[in-house]
């Protein structure tokens, strides 16, 4: 990592809002991705406070819980999100009619499933939107891999990846939601991960 980013990472280690403002100045086509998992209202509120019309990219796999769809709908309205959805090329009904219910993580077909419902839509989003700054709500607490990350990094394509909440705990997130009267969603299920601490490759590959 360049020494410039090292400086940014140390300057903004505990200043998510400052980091967000800095990151917006680094590009012309920022995006924020969300899957509407628990605590996502925090990053969505923070980035839209600075840039209300930032595109919010959602790969809707078709396999979200009812509660997640309701939470997404409520948050999109509440924050007036500029949501840009990317759907798999086949509907869930089409896929299941031919191949049955989603494969479990030990099933050899699971990788193909993940590619179809999450990775391909994300790669399409990258091609169509050509972002130069990418905000996520990744946190060090999520997985051992994330515990080793820095808040800002640049991938090999030059995309600036920004995780302003990397050092925040669940309590920090909860307190922010309370302070801003924002909703939360714990009835969340990611069919490509199933297990909470699993990485399915989206952010590691990009
Ligand atoms: N379905 C969908 N739609 C839009 N954006 C999504 C989606 N899945 C993942 N993401 C974004 O990628 C970040 C990492 O997600 P995951 O932990 O699910 O994936 S992975 O393990 O890295 O593959 C994830 O980070 P968070 O913002 O912390 O949730 C999102 O920003």
TrEMBL record:
Coiled coil: none annotated. SUPFAM superfamilies: Adenine nucleotide alpha hydrolases-like. Residues 40-185 form the Phosphoadenosine phosphosulphate reductase domain. Pathway: Sulfur metabolism; hydrogen sulfide biosynthesis; sulfite from sulfate. Pfam families: PAPS_reduct. Belongs to the PAPS reductase family. CysH subfamily. This is Phosphoadenosine phosphosulfate reductase family protein.
């Amino acid at each position: 990592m360049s020494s410039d980013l090292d400086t940014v990472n140390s300057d903004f280690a505990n200043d998510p809002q400052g980091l967000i403002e800095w990151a917006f100045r680094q590009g012309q086509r920022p995006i924020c991705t969300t899957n509407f998992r628990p605590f996502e209202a925090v990053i969505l509120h923070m980035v839209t406070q600075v840039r209300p019309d930032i595109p919010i990219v959602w790969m809707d796999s078709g396999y979200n819980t009812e509660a997640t769809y309701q939470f997404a709908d409520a948050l999109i309205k509440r924050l007036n999100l500029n949501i840009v959805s990317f759907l798999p090329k086949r509907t869930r009904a089409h896929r299941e009619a031919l191949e049955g219910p989603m494969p479990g993580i030990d099933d050899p077909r699971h990788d193909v499933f993940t590619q179809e419902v999450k990775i391909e839509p994300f790669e399409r989003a990258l091609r169509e939107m050509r972002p130069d700054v990418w905000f996520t709500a990744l946190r060090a607490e999520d997985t051992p891999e994330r515990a080793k990350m820095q808040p800002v990094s640049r991938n090999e394509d030059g995309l600036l990846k920004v995780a302003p909440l990397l050092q925040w705990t669940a309590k920090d997130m909860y307190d922010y939601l309370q302070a801003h009267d924002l909703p939360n969603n714990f009835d969340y299920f990611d069919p490509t991960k199933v297990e909470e601490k699993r990485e399915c490759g989206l952010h590691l590959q990009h």
